[in-house]
Amino acid sequence: MTPPETIAIETRELTRTFRRFIAVDSVSLQVRKGEIFGLLGANGAGKTTTIRMLTGLLKPSRGEAWVAGIPVHSSPEKVKHRLGYMSQRFSLYEDLTVAENLTFFGGVYGLRRPDLRRRKEALLDLFDLKDMADRITSSLPTGHRQRLALASALVHEPPLLFLDEPTGGIDPVARRTFWRVISDLASAGVTVMVTTHYMDEAEYCHRLGIMRDGRIVAVGSPDELRNTHQVATMEEVFLNVAGTGEDAS
Ligand SMILES: Nc1ncnc2c1ncn2[C@@H]1O[C@H](COP(=O)(O)OP(=O)(O)O)[C@@H](O)[C@H]1O
Ligand SMILES: [Mg+2]
Fold it and tell me: Which of 74, 136, 173, 182 is the most buried (most CB within 10 A)?
C-alpha cells in the first residue's frame, strides 16, 4: 500500500546484500515531509547503501521503499527528478566553472533556459558564490566546493534532498552556515535525509536513525534518544547502541 501524503520516505524491510554479505538488513522507517532525518552510524554501517537505494541508484535485494510517493523498488527511474542527491564525493565537474556546473545539472534535470537563469542567480546568491561564478571548480577551496555541490543538487527545486556526509572535511564555521541553509530548506517544506559522523550535527536533525551492521538499532529525536537511554549526550547514546564513539563515520 502507498504511504499517506504526509510521509516523504517510507521503507519496509529494505535489504541489500552483496554476495552473501548483508550491507543493509531489513530497514523499516518513515520520514515525514519537511523533516530533517539523520542517519548515524560507524563506517560500514550501511548508510551510503541505504541512500543509494532510496535515490534509485542501487536495486534493493528485498523489501520496499517509497520516496515522494514513488515505489523506488519497482520504478527507480521515476524518482530521480523528484530529489536532489549530494554524494559523499561531491560529484562535480572539475574542469567546468562554477556557473557551468549549475548549467550542466540544470540540463540533466531538464530545466528550460529562463528557469535555469533564475535558479542559477538565486543559488549563486544563496550560497555566496557570485564572485566565484567563473572560477574553475578544481581550483575552489573545499567549503566552496561543498556549497556548489549542494547548489547543484537543488537546481531543479526538488522536494527531497539526500546528503551523504555533506560536511566532511570542512571547517566548523562553514558547517554551521551549511546547516543554517538545510534548516531553512526544511522550514520551507523540503524533506532532508542526511548522514553524518559529527555528533554535534545530530542536534540539527529532527529525528535520527542509528545504524549498526546494516540494521537500524534506534530511532527518535535527539531528546527522545537521550531520555530513553538516560544519558546526557548523543555520544553516550551512540556508545550504548552502536558500540563505538565519535570517530564513527
Ligand atoms: N558495491 C559493494 N560491493 C560489496 N560490498 C559493498 C558494496 N558497497 C558497500 N559494501 C559494503 O557494505 C557495507 C556498508 O557500506 P556503506 O553503505 O558504504 O556504509 P557507510 O556509508 O555506513 O560507511 C560495508 O561493509 C561495505 O564494504
Ligand atoms: Mg558512507
Answer: 182
For the chain, give every domain's residue range.
Answer: 7-242
Protein residue with least CA distance to atom 7, ligand 1: 18
What is the pLDDT, as a whole number, of residue 247? Answer: 47
Residue-level pLDDT at 88: 80
pLDDT along the chain (249 residues), means of 10: 91 97 98 97 95 97 97 94 88 94 92 94 94 95 91 95 91 88 95 91 95 96 96 92 60
Kindly give the number of the ligand 1 atom that is closest to the alpha carbon of 164: 21
Q: What ligand has the least distance to the C-alpha of 45? A: 1
Mutate which of 14, 21, 49 to test ligand 1's pocket (most atoms within 8 Å of Cβ)?
A: 49
Atom of ligand 1 nearest to the CA of 45: 22
Per CATH, which fold does 7-242 belong to?
Rossmann fold (3.40.50)
Measured from CB, residues less than 6 Å from any atom of ligand 1 are 18, 23, 41, 43-49
Atom of ligand 1 at shortest distance to CA of 42? Answer: 22
Cα–Cα distance for residue pair 147/153, rounded to 1 Å: 10
Q: State which amino acid sits at residue 159.
A: P
